[in-house]
Every structure is written in C-alpha cells, then in structure tokens.
Amino acid sequence: MWALGCVVFEMLHRRPAFAAEERFELENLIRRAKHAPIDKRVPADARELIKGLLDAQPQRRLTARQVLDESSWVAAGASGG
C-alpha cells in the first residue's frame, strides 16, 4: 500500500514523493515519512489518501479495503466507472 501512495503522489505531482541527493538521506526521509509537500490544488480526498498510504507506521497505513471504501474516485476506477 505504501508503494501505491508513492505512485499516486507521483501521478498527481509529476515528481517523486521522496527525493534526496544521497541514499542514506532518502532512506531517512522514507523511514520518517517526510515526503514532499502535497500540492494544495490536489483534492482533499486525494490528499488524505496519500497521507494514509504513506504513513510511516505500517499498522496505521490504509488497507486496500479502506482505500476502496473511503476513496470514491479510486472505487469508481476499480469498478470500471
């Protein structure tokens, strides 16, 4: 689910959620969930989706079921609508 958050972020921003010059810096950003700021033009439900998917704590991260239940635009795409 974390990887989905990275993909959604990059699709909406056209840049990666995490970027650094050095690998250890990148790993540190990822471990602490210090992703790039979410653009204010991104719809509120997409912002919450990204935050929920990129949570540093796996047990707090959104599950696939939660994503489908809570994100109407994701559910519409998943059902072909």
Automatic annotation (TrEMBL):
Record field: transmembrane: none
UniProt keyword Kinase, yes or no: yes
Keyword list, A-Z: ATP-binding, Kinase, Nucleotide-binding, Serine/threonine-protein kinase, Transferase
GO molecular function: ATP binding; protein serine/threonine kinase activity
Enzyme class at the top of the EC tree: transferase
Catalytic activity: L-threonyl-[protein] + ATP = O-phospho-L-threonyl-[protein] + ADP + H(+); L-seryl-[protein] + ATP = O-phospho-L-seryl-[protein] + ADP + H(+)
EC number of this enzyme: 2.7.11.1
UniProt cross-references to SUPFAM superfamilies, sorted A to Z: Protein kinase-like (PK-like)
Domain Protein kinase per the UniProt entry, residue ranges: 1-74
Family annotation (InterPro entries): Kinase-like_dom_sf (IPR011009), NEK_Ser/Thr_kinase_NIMA (IPR051131), Prot_kinase_dom (IPR000719)
Gene3D superfamilies recorded: Transferase(Phosphotransferase) domain 1
Name of this protein: non-specific serine/threonine protein kinase
Species, as recorded: Chrysochromulina tobinii
